[in-house]
Fold:
Amino acid sequence: MTPLELAKAYMKIFFDSKNFEELKSIFSENLDFKGPLFQSYSAQEYIDSLLASPPVDSEYQIIQAYEDSQSACLVYKFFKENRETLMSQVFWVANGRIEKIRLVFNPQDIC
Structure:
């Protein structure tokens, strides 16, 4: 899969299927995730956090999508409980798996 295909697969699992164990098929074991509210340094740690506190009643609408040979960026509107914010998520890929994610948004918009 291309970096953009991997990023979109992540979004479908995160928002639609919520079958978080599926993320193991697209994540590097040493996934490095950082966002304004959470960070983790392994795929299992990230997946465990989603299993413990799954996202509920949230949706997204992709506004822009970019990719090159090693990364993809999604810019999207995030909706939750009549609130919305603009988010940007960058995915770096190696060996056909997502190895690093950076999520940027203003948490005050949704918290």
Summary: The helical segments are 3-17, 43-52. The chain has a mean pLDDT of 96. The domain at 3-109 is CATH 3.10.450.50 (Nuclear Transport Factor 2; Chain: A,). The chain is about 25% helix and 45% strand.
